[in-house]
Amino acid sequence: MFVTPAFAQGVGGAGGNLMSSMLVPMLLVFGIMYFLMIRPQQKKMKEHQAMLTALRRGDQVVTAGGLIGKVAKVKDDTEVELEIADGVKVRVMRSTIAQVMSKTEPAAS
Prior knowledge:
The protein is an alpha+beta fold and 109 residues long. It folds into two domains: 5-50; 55-102, SH3 type barrels (Roll), CATH 2.30.30. The chain contains two helices and five strands. It has a five-stranded antiparallel sheet with strand order 4-3-2-1-5, with helices on one face. A hairpin with a 4-residue loop joins β1 (60-63) and β2 (68-74).
């Protein structure tokens, strides 16, 4: 029924330890999230960017909208002209190209 001085002294010391005991698990969770989610996404973005910079005329590609076509002309850094049927050419943003299905051989010099 009576609170002894020993119980009262033990409560004050736990406050500092509480902060450090919560910091370690939070850092651990962030580290796991980085290696499981952030790092693979960055790697995938780098591979996609490399694929887009390597586009050249004659490559068969698939856009994010599902169009399959052959690169007729690489206009600039942001735009590509695709031939989706004989004589039917459309302009698409380079960033909308999702996959390169087949690559052409580089021209012989």
